[in-house]
Each structure stands twice: as structure tokens, then as C-alpha cells.
């Protein structure tokens, strides 16, 4: 059962009891918990009344009745994504807009007919995969809007074992995709934080990067062929492993967030399941020394599959919060970690935790792991062994559930992220940490480096503060504006893997320039002249 | 001194004396040489008279006098690229169009002023780098046209040694770029066939792939940041090692071939010069077995830096033509090869030569090389050692000079290329070989696999036939149409690294669809509303 007002499934939640360090940690850093906005009953939510009651009739020639849903749960569940402010809209009962209906096409032809109909009837269309956007990419902004849920366009439709190519429907959820591949001995290796509830189509539309992106590439690196439907017709993109056939049109739809059309299927480069995995953790004396170690591994190889370096604040938070259902090992680490900090000269205010994963053939993984250990130790690192990394792997998809608990307790919690060159990384980290702290007032800011490249890496920040119950949206807007202004001022990219959505659109011109925006808008007009496709995503409609 | 009527520099040529096998080889396969069209004197070329004599005056406020050239050599040298038909236009004295003037801006501001002026005066503008296009990307199609030569926007303008990022002007020639990097301990590793005479801007505009693209990536993989000037203003693209900030605008300029604007500089990922290189050659019993070996190396690693597998025809031709100034080793190989073919069961009609190169750290290269040897031997390969690869490395930039000699002898000689998935590769090779042979009549067709990826590889064909002196253009058109139709019918990409230019534009719709073309054309209208930028490249102007 999906948690319509929060993350994931109602079967799972983040347990305060199993994480006894949480309460004291929050009290120490942002003040005592208090009662935030509670989740209202579904029935009590104010939803905009449908403006065009004839929808079922309009689409009756296109879809069968059970594939057109207009019930309250479907409408609320498709009105927003899963950002902090989306969930606060629900808690504060201020959902401004919601789709009139949610459509579930079963064929690409039905998608085409839906877009035709929507254009004719002036209905906005928001393609919907797993609904996990944290940038407002799914937030309806006008009436009437239709949510186009790709749930039924899913599954493995072709596997070329010789070429390592697999074709999937865009609506395929992460776990289904990996299960289908694993049963044939393959993996895509794409594990974003949202993995359990997000879809291939969503990954493609938002240029997603999985946690193992160093080893397996970003989602766009895996795309061999893409099929999309626009209001002006179908597009087939990609006829080879690489091409010089003019501009890469594929790269318009990747990151297009539904503004140009709907991605309906993709053929992806897959890989044999790795024979071996080796995940290991290290303590560094400082974030800076950890950065140098990761940089060296990326630039001289062998490259790890995953590298995730927490700054001192995130390392402290991790130690404080560890100890969940999978946390036996971590409790040991906490003790070891604290003793190290005391006796081996690792200072609590500086110690940084690095998780490093190698995946692949036996020999490759052994070579990688031992080389990595040499590089890390040469920079003063302490080898913490496998258990912290194992705990992280076991709990990594649990973290978003924590947010719902924190919102119950009146905590504003969100993340922001960027990427920049190695030479700019440490200064930018300091600048953004400082800006975020100042914007929050009494709050907590932590960060990790991840998704590293030869030329730079991503910085991923998480922040907490007590909610301003009078106007939690104004509070969040202020912080968001400040940190995003600083990202742009710091010469870094607006977003490395969350996407633009609606929250980042004021800064897109800063990223690609006024002329770049002109070019993209002209393409949209050519493919979607009536402007029905996810209007307001990427840029505000003129 | 550049060879305005052929390839490269007048200091270098392909010597028939040093390649004694050439004459007999041609006689055997396409018939005896005869006298083709001779190169006319520069003075005797019919050039369209300038239509707008006021050009020097128009640009006098923008450029100093020596940066505006209207002499005959400059005009002819910028009227065409270096394709077979371009060179035949010169030899048959049928240059239809030529630029009125060649402009050599020294600053980005001058580029902006030139585009402003051209828009105001309705002058077409063709950005010009090294002039080595083989797809008609530089061929003026109308009067008045201006050639915008980027020669003076060149050189290394910044090196971030920490981030492995180097910034160059777009007009930087391959050797200058590598020299500048080598003096600081770095390399880009981009070595297209045209390396000596092509520029960074040209590589970027045409999505070039160097011969070591397996190891160093295609040019688009190396781009961190791109600066371009359009008639509507400047564009800055790329603010991080990767981004999810909407569609990748960079990827619309890469491959844009000057249709949207002029690329003026780029920041590229560079790498430390490799500590070690190991290039080695193998004989396989068949092309198919060689393909399987390359596929295995690409899919299970360690990946080579270069893999180049000649089919049986190219292997035979290579043996026949080897023995140039660097060919002592190769003559040995020819003898060894011929003996092998006789005594070890390698059949002449099937034997395929593989060149395999590893570059990087000592251990990495040793591991790669020995693993490769195991994989190749398991597929029945015979290790030919280092000398054939050394000869190839020494002579690789000499091959285009052969064409000028062949044209003297009345030979039609050209190449075509594509890329496809591994499972489609061998059937497509057979299909394209057959189609080309049929289209040529009495001719010779050979091919190599190169630029391999996990999911597939490129096929690069070379063909020879006696020229039809009555209408060499019609003869070439017929072959080109036939093989390109077959590439598209075979589900492969229209071009893997030559680009679209003007020759491939009839098939671009087959590659990206009518809607894809609509999208690109709309973007062009937004950035270049007067349509002055390289009109006719990518698609025929409406």
C-alpha cells in the first residue's frame, strides 16, 4: 500500500525505537522535537473540483473504464511528487491543483491517442512514473490537468545477450527491472536513492544518477535507443552504440522531464551480474584528505563502483543515528569510531567516513580493493572493514522514510546537490555549508561527496531545522533560494541528479543562458505547439 | 604549404616507389591504372565572381585588413572540404560556389561582430577549422558566402592540473593541442585519421571519434564546457563533470556542424600521458572470430585503448601495400603472414588482422595485454608481435595521401562508415560488402571494425574502382546512395564519426525521424533566425 502522504510503502517506516540516537541528536543540534503538522485524513483534503466532468466520456474511446481513474486517492497520489514541500502541501491541506483524472494506457498507440485528445481538448498532461520527484516535476499547476501514469507500459520486452542490450517499458519500477535482468544473469546497476519506487522513464526524463554511477555510469550513459511520443508524433532515437549523425536528439529527451513528450521505452546497455563485490569503509582525518584519496582513485584508477565520502558533520550524524535493524556492525563501528577519535588522533570535528565499493570480476575487485587501501592509507585513513558499508547497503533505501518521522516532529528536512570540478570542490563545500547554516539559523547541515568523475564530483547536502509553523513554505523558499544562488555563484551546476522540475526553473537561465533557453523553448513549440506537455516544468510558461 | 587540391601538406606524399605492391594490387583488383583528371593550375580554375564587392569595406570596422582574405588560393582552399568529390570538383574544374572572403577573427568579440554583420548583410557563414570534412560540411552552396576561419582562436588558455581540465581555442590543430598538453604532462588522446590537419572545433562540431576512442572516449565524452557564438548571442554550456539540469544543450551543439553557431572554445577532460603503451597484432582465422575476441575484451575488460580488426580483404590489401618508409617490420610480417597462410591453416580469403593497443599505467597495460593475448589465442589467433602495429602507428596519418595518387591514376576511392550492435555486426558487414561490390561493378571493398563499445562497434569501409571519366560524380552518387540506403535498411546509424554534412542529409530523417528534424530546425530558427549559419548542412534549406 503506497504512503500517499509520504515516502514509499506503508509496510515500512523509520523506527525511532530502533534508532535511539535520533532524538538526542536532534535535540542537540536543532532543539527539542515538537508536534509538526499532522497528516490529514484523505477525505478531509481540499481538492480543486474537477472542471471538466466529461473526461471519462472523452477518453472512453481511447481507454477501457478501469484505466481511467478519478477517485480521490488517485488524484491526490498524482497531484505532487515527494519533495519536502510536496508533503507539506498535504500536511497543511494546501494542495492547489490536482489532476482531473489519472490515465493508465496499456499500449504506445493509446499514449498517442491520449496526447491527441489532450491537445484537442486543451488538457495539460503530466507523464507519471513512480512519482518520486523532489523538484516539483510532477506538481500540477493548472486545471484541467491529466496525469499519464505509465504503470502498464512496463517490463522487459527484449534482451540481446550478445550485445548486452535490454529493452524495457518506461513504466518499469527499479526492482522489477533488476529482477527481470538478474533472472537472465544481467544488471543495469542503476540504484538511485528512490530505486524501490521510481521507474526507468523517470530516471531517463530526469537524467538520474544511481549510487553506483562511477562503475555503471549515469542513466544517460546506458541509453542505446529511446522511444518517445510527442503531441506531433513518435520519435525513435539511437541506432548504434554511438553516432555522429548530427546533434544528439536523445539528449533533448534525457532531462526533458516530460516537456517535449513522453518516453515510452528504452533499450539500455546492461552488464553481467558482478562475480564479486567488495565494500569497505575508511576514516580520514579530514574531508579534504578523503577528497584527495577519491580524486586519486578516479584519476589513476582502478575506479571504484561507488565512492561516498561524508564530511565531518555527516560522519557524526551517521554515527549518532546508526544502529537500525541492520546496525549490529555499525554499533561496533560507533564504539570503534569513538575510541579512534579519542585515542588515534582522529578529531570528531574533522573525521570523515568514506565508503568505497568495487564490483566486477574476482581479480578486478581484488586489485581495485587493495590499490584503494594503499591510496587511502597513504592519506592517513583507518580501515574500518566491511560492516559500516554493509549496514549502509542494507539501510540505504530506508533513509527517505526518516523524513516522514521528522515532519511529525516539526522538523524541516531537505537535501540539495550539485557537481563541480575537483579544484572547486572543497571551497564550494565550505561556502555552501556556511550559506546553508546561515539561512537556517539554528539548524544542522551535512554533506557527502558522491558520483565522482575524473574531473570532479557531486556534493550532496542534507539539512535540518525546526519548522517555522507560521509559514513553513516561506522558510523553505528562503533556504532554497540562498543555497541555489550560492551554487550558481560558485560556478557549479544547478543540479547533478535531481533535475530542474519547477523548483529549479528560476536558475535554468543561469545554467544554459537566455539563448539556450530560447533554443529549448523553440524545440518544445515544434513538438508540442499547444504547450500541453507538463506545462511549467523546466521553465515558467510565458 | 597546404595541398589545396588534395590532402595535407605538399611536403608529404604517398610514394608508389616505397609501396611497390600498390600497382600490382590495383591491377589485380580493379584493372590497370590510367590517367585520371589532372590537377588544374590554380589560375585556370573557374571561380564564381564575387557578388558583393564591398566586403572588405563591410568588415573593415570589424577586422584588420590582413585578417580579411579574398585572394584566389584562400577562396579555393575554403570552398570545399577534403572528400573524394570535393577533390574531383577541383580536378574537373567544376567548383560551383566559393566564399567571397575568408575572415580570420582574433577574438570572440570579433566572431560576434562578424555574425552580426553577416546577418545584417545576408551573408551565409561557414565556420572553418582544418577543412578536412569528408561529408561536404564546408561546401559553399550559395553566393554570397563567408568562410569564418578559426585559425587565430587557438592554443591552450587554461590548465587545471588538479581537475584534469584544459581549455583550448576551437581553432587549435591536433598536433598543437597535443604538444601543449604534453609539455605539461597531459594528453587528450584524440587521434582521428585527420589529426594532423583538423582542429578541436571541427572535432566538436562533427562528434569526432579518435582512433583510441575505446580508451580515451569520443570527443563528446571529453567535453566539460563549451563556448559558442550564435547570431542571437553567446552560449556557455557545461558547469560540472555531469549534470541533470534539463536537456543537454551541449549535445545539440556537438554534432551541430555550424548550423546553430560557431564553437569558439572548449574545456576538455585530459589525462596524464600514459606511462606505458603496448600495441600488438594478431591473425585470426576469420573476421567473425576476431569480432568475438574484440567483443569479449570490450564486455569483460580490461578494455584496450585501441582495437582495429581488418576483414579478410583489408588484411590482404594491408599485406600487399605494406612496406613504406616505416615498413621494414611489415615486410617481415608479410612474409611471415604469407607463410602462415600457407602452412598454419590461415586461409588467405579469411584471415583477419587485429591491432590491439593498451595504454596507461605499467601494471594496467601489462595486465591488459596478457589478458588480451589469452582471449585472442583462445579464439585461434596467432600473435604477430609488435611490428605490424608499430608500422601502422607510424604510417596511420599517411593513408589519406594515397588518395591523391590514386586519383592521378583514375581511381575512385572513398570510405563509408557506420556503427551497430554486436549481434548485427557480422550480418551488416556481409550485407554492406555485398551491396558496395554490386554498386561498384569491378571494384574492391574492404572494411575494419574499430571504435568498439560494450554494445557494438563501428564498421569502416574503403572502396576502390576505376573512375567513370564521363561522369565520375554520377558514379560516386550511385555507390553512395546504395551503401547508405543499406546502412539505414540494416538498422545501423547513418554515420559513426564522419558527420552529416551535406552528403548524408537525405538520410537524416531516417535516423531521427521527421519530428526530430522539426525539433532541430526549430532550434536553428531560434538561434539563427536569418538562416545564415552554414545553410544546407544537416538538412537542405526549405
What is the topological layout?
2 copies of one chain form a homodimer.
Chain A (H helix, E strand, L loop, with lengths): L21 H9 L24 H4 L9 E2 L2 H6 L6 H8 L9 E3 L4 H14 L2 E5 L16 E5 L6 E5 L4 E5 L4 H9 L3 E2 L12 H6 L7 H4 L6 E8 L2 E5 L12 H4 L8 E8 L1 E2 L3 E9 L2 H14 L5 E5 L1 H10 L6 H16 L8 E9 L1 H17 L3 E4 L1 H9 L3 H10 L2 E11 H19 L2 E8 L5 E11 L5 H18 L15 H23 L15
Parallel strand pairs in A: 2-4, 3-4
Antiparallel strand pairs in A: 1-2, 5-6, 6-10, 7-11, 8-9, 8-10, 12-14, 12-15, 13-14, 13-17, 16-18, 17-18
Mean pLDDT reading of chain A: 94
Tell me about the largest β-sheet of chain A. 7 strands, antiparallel
Count of separate DSSP helical elements of chain A: 18
CATH topology-level fold name of the domain at 276-396 in chain A: Vanillyl-alcohol Oxidase, Chain A, domain 3
User: How do the strands of the widest beta sheet of chain A line up side by side?
Assistant: 15-12-14-13-17-18-16
Amino acid at each position: 500500500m503506497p504512503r500517499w502522504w509520504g515516502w514509499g510503502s506503508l509496510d515500512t517506516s523509520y523506527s525511532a525505537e530502533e534508532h535511539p540516537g535520533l532524538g538526542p541528536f536532534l535535540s542537540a543540534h536543532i532543539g527539542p522535537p515538537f508536534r509538526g503538522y499532522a497528516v490529514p485524513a484523505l477525505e478531509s483534503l481540499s481538492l480543486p473540483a474537477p472542471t471538466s466532468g466529461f473526461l471519462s466520456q472523452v477518453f472512453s474511446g481511447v481507454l477501457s473504464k478501469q484505466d481511467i481513474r478519478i477517485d480521490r486517492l488517485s488524484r491526490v497520489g498524482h497531484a505532487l511528487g515527494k519533495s519536502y514541500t510536496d508533503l507539506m502541501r498535504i500536511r497543511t491541506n494546501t494542495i492547489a491543483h490536482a489532476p482531473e483524472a489519472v490515465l493508465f494506457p496499456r499500449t504506445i498507440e493509446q499514449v498517442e491517442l491520449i496526447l491527441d485528445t489532450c491537445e484537442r481538448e486543451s488538457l495539460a498532461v503530466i507523464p507519471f512514473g513512480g512519482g518520486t520527484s523532489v523538484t516539483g516535476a510532477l506538481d500540477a499547476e493548472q486545471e484541467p490537468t491529466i496525469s499519464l501514469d505509465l504503470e502498464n507500459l512496463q517490463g522487459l520486452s527484449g534482451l540481446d545477450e550478445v550485445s548486452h542490450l535490454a529493452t524495457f517499458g518506461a513504466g518499469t519500477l527499479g526492482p522489477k527491472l533488476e529482477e527481470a535482468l538478474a533472472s537472465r544473469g544481467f544488471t543495469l546497476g542503476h540504484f538511485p536513492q528512490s530505486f524501490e519506487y521510481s521507474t526507468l522513464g523517470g530516471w531517463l526524463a530526469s537524467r538520474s544518477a544511481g549510487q553506483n554511477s562511477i562503475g555503471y555510469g549515469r542513466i544517460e550513459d546506458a541509453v542505446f535507443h529511446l522511444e518517445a511520443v510527442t503531441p506531433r508524433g513518435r520519435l525513435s532515437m539511437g541506432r548504434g552504440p554511438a553516432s555522429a549523425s548530427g546533434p544528439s536528439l536523445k539528449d533533448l529527451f534525457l532531462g526533458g522531464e516530460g516537456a517535449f513528450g513522453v518516453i515510452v521505452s528504452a533499450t539500455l546497455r546492461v552488464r553481467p551480474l558482478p562475480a564479486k563485490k567488495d565494500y569497505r569503509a575508511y576514516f580520514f582525518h579530514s574531508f579534504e584528505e578523503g577528497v584527495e584519496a577519491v580524486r586519486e582513485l578516479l584519476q589513476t584508477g582502478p575506479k571504484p563502483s561507488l565512492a561516498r565520502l561524508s564530511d565531518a558533520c555527516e560522519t557524526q550524524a551517521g554515527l549518532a543515528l546508526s544502529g537500525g535493524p541492520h546496525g549490529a556492525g555499525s554499533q561496533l563501528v560507533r564504539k570503534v569510531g569513538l575510541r579512534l577519535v579519542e585515542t588515534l588522533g582522529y578529531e570528531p570535528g574533522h573525521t570523515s567516513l568514506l565508503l568505497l565499493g568495487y564490483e566486477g570480476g574476482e581479480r578486478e575487485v581484488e586489485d581495485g580493493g587493495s590499490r584503494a587501501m594503499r591510496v587511502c592509507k597513504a592519506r592517513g585513513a583507518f580501515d574500518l572493514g566491511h560492516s559500516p558499508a554493509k549496514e549502509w547497503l542494507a539501510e540505504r533505501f530506508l533513509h527517505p522514510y526518516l523524513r516522514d518521522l521528522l515532519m511529525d516532529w516539526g522538523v524541516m528536512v531537505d537535501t540539495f546537490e550539485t557537481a563541480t570540478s575537483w579544484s572547486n570542490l572543497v571551497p564550494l563545500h565550505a561556502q555552501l555549508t556556511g550559506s546553508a547554516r546561515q539561512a537556517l539559523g539554528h539548524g544542522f547541515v551535512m554533506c557527502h561527496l558522491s558520483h565522482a568523475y575524473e574531473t570532479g564530483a557531486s556534493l550532496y547536502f542534507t539539512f535540518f531545522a525546526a519548522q517555522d509553523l507560521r509559514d513553513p513554505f516561506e522558510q523553505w523558499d528562503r533556504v532554497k533560494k540562498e543555497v541555489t544562488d550560492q551554487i550558481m555563484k560558485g560556478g557549479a551546476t544547478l543540479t547533478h541528479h535531481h533535475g530542474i522540475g519547477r523548483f529549479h526553473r528560476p536558475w535554468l537561465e543561469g545554467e544554459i543562458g537566455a539563448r539556450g533557453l530560447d533554443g529549448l523553448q523553440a524545440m518544445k513549440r515544434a513538438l508540442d505547439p499547444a504547450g500541453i506537455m507538463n506545462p511549467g516544468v523546466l521553465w515558467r510558461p510565458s
